[in-house]
Each structure stands twice: as structure tokens, then as C-alpha cells.
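Lab notebook, bench 4. We co-purified these components, and the gel suggests they stay together. Before we commit to crystallization screens, I want a quick structural picture of the whole thing.
Request: model the full complex, all chains together.
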Amino acid sequence: MHRYRTHTCGALRESDIGHEVRLSGWCHRIRDHGGVLFIDLRDHYGMTQVVVDPDSKAFPLAEKLRAEWVVRIDGKVRIRPAGTENPEMPTGKVELYASEIEVLGPAAELPLPVFGDQEYPEEVRLKYRFLDLRRERLHNNIMLRGRVIDSIRRRMKDGGFFEFQTPILTASSPEGARDYLVPSRIHPGKFYALPQAPQQFKQLLMVAGFDRYFQIAPCFRDEDARADRSPGEFYQLDLEMSFVTQQDVFDAVEPVIRGVFEEFGAGKHVTAKFPLIPYAEAMRKYGSDKPDLRNPIVMQDVSAAFRDSGFKVFANILANDPKAEVWAIPAKGGGNRAFCDRMNSWAQGEGQPGLGYIFWREGEEGGAGPLAKNIGPERTKQIAEQLGLGVGDACFFVAGQPAKFVKFAGPARTKVGEELGLIVKDRFEFCWIVDFPMFEWSEEEKKIDFSHNPFSMPNYPIDDFLALDPADAETILGIKAIQYDIVCNGVELSSGAIRNHRPDVMKKAFAIAGYGEDVLEQKFGGMLRALTYGAPPHGGIAPGIDRIVMLLAGEENLREVVVFPMNQRAEDLLMGAPSEVTQKQLRELHIRLNLPQK
RNA sequence: GGGGGCGUAGCUCAGCUGGUUAGAGCGCUGCCCUGUCACGGCAGAGGCCGAGGGUUCGAGUCCCUUCGCUCCCGCCA
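Here is the predicted assembly.
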């Protein structure tokens, strides 16, 4: 007989009745009836009920067992007495009558019970992550993650992609997020950086002729955390392809993503064909470049209804600023004052002066509320008709420069959708966001800068692009990049682009953004050199693994799908990272600390 | 860096307009219980009410400061 077990805790069935077996596992739950005592013995594979009574020589020890002790139990499998089967458990028709128990690992009183599904504070859960991971929900999430990654690998390989490993210790890159730095012992004063993404490496692999690359790649960024953004490190399905158009990338990636969501989405509806939504349209309709399409609300421009109207606040905004507009957020089913007032207070809590509204109800079919009275019945009717609203509905309005108010309009649309229960859960609504602007006006630096990734190819005839006058801001700010995102349920799942593989175009793009060739050479010399010696047109994308698993697991927070996550302040409470190091270590690295005054 | 929320027993939480000895459930300890599967019953231990300061006859409760966790803004090729 094996030292620890002949079966796992999820294995025993009626066919095993009468056999002498050995199980090892954790005491999940113990029910002591004095004369008879039940132990639910748990391991990774399942749970089996163990019975002990005073006729067994294991009885005295069984009475001493406590939750989460690790034990080995020998005994005979027997059928449960009629009426005591548990149909909830796969092993529920049988039980193990214990003849011998050995304690393999006793447990101290638990700071975090494994049994049950109560919520516990993040701090305790992270400090005792190993206990939290024993709990069903997290345990399942982590296994789901593994299965999702297996499936992704298989799908990528079937699609003709090869998996590569790229360096973890690399060079600091000037663009993007803050780097994690690693001091060099051999080169005093110099540092490696952990890659924010294997961006340049995958492009170099394309230049090297490997044609189709992918990697489940760790990425490191020293930026502050969010619920959907782990501090420090996260994983991407990083991929790159040569000789492709944007459409080729879509055709390669969309089936992988859709397939994974259909495979693990527990039957939830998955978008059959991801619609393409231009960035500008997404901002206009949804107030976001990562719209939640489960929310049916589509905003509209209703400036005409307010221009020169009796509602002076909006009329003046429109009269005084040619860029100003008024947008409407329709709220079907929100046609009562209580709801409109609640939205108004919410807006004030968001730092807005308020949220104008009109609502329609029985007896006031022409529109109710102060705003309706100010603009009059004709204009109110015009709004109702434009948005298809009637009795029982409401509509909210935001005014000003769209570029400035979308940061509020987008969340307002979400809020209305949530409050009115318009968001259809149990669906994965995907879309591609395309046509991102290549450049944007940096208010901070008072100059044109890259809007997103400087490696993206501008969607503009190459000769015309090379001939651009850097002072022609209007034309330049209108140029789109061949860049795209996948968005699902309001979560940005991935970002990608057709890359700029032409050194002359790249030099021009950097020149437009105000960077000289010396900067380009210094920061991206390797990349530039590679593009000089025969670079294929190429492009790719990098879906976030953690976010995919988060959506599939139905979780709101990345920590629920990462085995050993850090907390919001980028601390690992279990391992105690970051930590101080010895003077000797610092000396070897030629580092002297210069700590902030406290 | 900024804003919101939270902080009371090992854990989850209650504790009203400030009022005498701060409660419940789970867990823990002891006793009882031979068919439970959230077993049940009885008894008990366990509290710097995050920390510091203030107001008050009196503070878990009000005010200020500070620390911790979390959510958001900034930031995020």
C-alpha cells in the first residue's frame, strides 16, 4: 500500500465498496455526534466522508482532530445507510469507515477559515494566501486560469504560431510606464529594466524572419494599481505576425478569443463577430474607448435643441464656444423625479455642478422638469423624437467641449444603465476599437505628442506623411494610427497595432512629436538598426491573460485570478516583498541609499 | 501625489440623538449527544473599540491628526 494514499478524496464510488483504501487530505469539516463522528476529508480532487465510531481503534484520535489538520486515514469503503446519501457530492453514495488515522500535519487555530464562502479582508487573505487558495472559489479560479492558458496555447499553435522566450533582464525604455530597475553589479551605475512588454523583442523576431510569434509573456510596470490592473506584474498573450494587414491580425486573434470565451464562458453569449467601432464613434456614442456594449444606451448630439433656447446655461455655452456641444444620455424607464434627482446628486458627488434632465410621465407627456419648461414644448418634443423617448422615460444632458466632458458623460451613461437595470449580464459583448489618433495635443507640454504607441504605423500614404509640415497641427492631429483594441464588457482586453517598419517614417513620426534623430538613435537604436536591414511589414496584439480569466471567472478584481498577488501598494504580504537588503548586497551593487526625510 | 469608503473578539459584523458592566454568529476550550453533511444542546474563555490628541461630568459614538486596508483620479509601450 502506498505510504499516503491509494485513492484521492474525489475518487471513491460504489464500485469500491468493500475495499480497504488509504486517503490523505485536509479535515474540511468535522461533525462530532459523541458516538459517531464524521470527517469530510478534502484534497485537490474532491471530498470524501469518513466515519468513525467507538468500535474503531481510530476513535480516540479522531476526537482530537480539528479543521485543516492534514491526516492519513485507512479504512474500508462502505455504502452509506439508506437515506443518508448526499447527492450533492460525487462520492456521496459511499463513505470510508476509518480503522487507522495518522496526523501528518496539525494546524494551529485558523486566521481564515477554509470552510464556507464568507468574505474576508484582503489583508488577511493575502497574508495567508495559502489558506485562501484552499478555498473552493480561489482554488477553482486558479485552475480555470491554467485551463484557459492551455487552451490559448493550443489554439495559437494550431494557428501556426511559435512560442518564444524573451529576456526578463533588458534595457529601460523611455516611453510608456515607469520601469522596474535592476542594478548591475558588473557595470557600476548601470541598470537593467524588467520588460514592460516584449514589444521590441517580438518585432525583432519578425525582422529575424520567424513569421509568427507568441508568448504567454510576463510584463512589468511600476504603476499604481486598479481593480483591473495588478501592481508590478501581469501576463499577456503576446503575439506578432509578418506580412499582415490589420484584418489578418483580427482574423488570427478573434477566433482564439471567441473560442476561449465560448469554451470557458459557462454558456454565456459571446459576440459572434466582433463589430469594428472607430475610436471617434465610441467616444461619441458611449463616452469611452472601452465601451460596455451590454449597456444599450447610446448618447446623441442634441445641440440643435438647445442653441438659442430659453435654457440660458446651455445656450450660452454653445454661443460662446464653437467646439461646444450638448449630448443627451437617454434613460428608458427612468421617467420619475426620484430617479432623476438621484442621478443629479450622483453627478454632484462626481464634482459636477449638476445633471440637467427632462422626464416624461402621465399627465406631462410633453416633458417635465425645469429644463423642459425653459426650452419649451417644441424643443422638448424634438429631443423626445430624436432619441425615441416617451412617457416613463428620462433624458440627461451634458454640455461643453466633448473632449472635456466625456470623462463624466461615459460614467454617467454607465450609471444610468446600472441604476435602471438596463445592462444585460451573462453576456460577453466584444468589439474592436479601431482608428485611434496617431498624435494628440499635449496640454502639459504644449506640443504634439504620440497618442499611444510610437511604434504604430500611421494610416496615411507614406509619401504624404514624409512630406508633412510639422507645423500643420490640424492635419497631423487628424491622422489615425493602424492601432486597435479588443474590448469586452467595458474592459480593455488588449491593444495592438500594425507596426511602423520603415525607418524613414519612424524618423518623421518622431520629428513630428518633437524628438530629434539623436533621441531616436539613443533610445531605439537597436530597433531602428533592425528596420534598416530588411524589415517585413508586421503587426500584432497582446490580450491580457489576467483580465480574460477575470471575466471568465466572473470576478471584479484581478487578485481573484492571480495565485500570489501583491496588494494595492505593491507589497507581497506573504513573502514580505519588497524588503530591505544587507549593506554587503548594496556595496556589491555600488548603491548608497538616499532615503526621503520623514 | 489627491479624493471617497472602511477599521469594534482569531474571523464576519451590530452597537441609535454621547450615558453605567461593549453584544451576536462562526471559530476556540470543556461537557453532553450513534447518521450528520452549515449537525444539535449546555457552559466558558477571549476586547488598547487601529494609534495619538482634543471637546465633555462622561467618548466605541463628536472634532483634529496619524497609520493601515480598499475603491477611484493622476499615472498606465
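The two ends of chain A are 63 Å apart (CA to CA). Worth comparing against the SEC data before the next meeting. Chain A has a mean pLDDT of 92.
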